[in-house]
Write a structure and sequence with these properties.
- This protein is 79% helix and 0% strand.
- By secondary structure, the chain is an all-alpha fold.
- 45% of the residues are buried.
Length: 177
């Protein structure tokens, strides 16, 4: 239900290209999560309403307030973070370096959303801004998770929201320069 509500809001405020973006995020995230859970033989947990809004809240706020680049930046963070986490869990080694499989997946996730932005926008020059916003937001998510979530200062939903808000703000900043 929460996902449907997000989709309706995105379609009403942004139109078909924005709706395609949110559906793309959802589909790729679900495929990555299902795949990684199958590989590590762990049950795929059900996403909660809080989880849905934690990942899409900053994007929705950006869209409602007319910051289109912020919408794409926030979704780029959410996909980057999801792919980084899910694909990174498949690594045989404990993640220690910033150059791991999860980080490569984050770059790919961010580039996917930036590509949708590129093909659906009249601002063709901002592919890099959206991709960078998504990637940096994913790094912020990792930092917030390691510093605050691990110590129970924030929960995962709050970390996801703050990181995607950070990505939205970076995208807005970079596209207004």
């Amino acid at each position: 239900m929460a996902g449907n509500l997000v989709g309706i809001i995105v379609f009403l405020f942004g139109g078909i290209n924005y709706f395609i973006t949110i559906v793309t995020f959802f589909l790729i995230a679900e495929i990555a999560t299902s795949y990684s859970r199958k590989k590590i033989r762990k049950k795929h947990e059900q996403r909660t309403v809080a989880h849905v809004f934690g990942n899409s809240g900053a994007a929705l706020l950006s869209l409602v307030f007319g910051f289109n680049a912020g919408f794409f930046g926030a979704i780029a963070v959410s996909l980057s973070d999801t792919l980084s986490s899910e694909i990174g869990m498949l690594s045989k080694k404990k993640p220690r370096l910033i150059t791991t499989l999860g980080l490569s997946a984050a770059v790919i996730g961010s580039a996917i959303i930036a590509g949708i932005y590129f093909y659906s926008s009249i601002d063709k020059g901002f592919f890099g801004a959206i991709a960078l916003a998504g990637f940096l937001g994913s790094i912020a998510d990792s930092f917030l998770g390691a510093v605050f979530e691990k110590k129970k200062g924030l929960n995962n939903t709050q970390v996801n929201f703050l990181a995607s808000l950070f990505g939205a703000m970076i995208a807005i900043f970079l596209t207004t320069l």
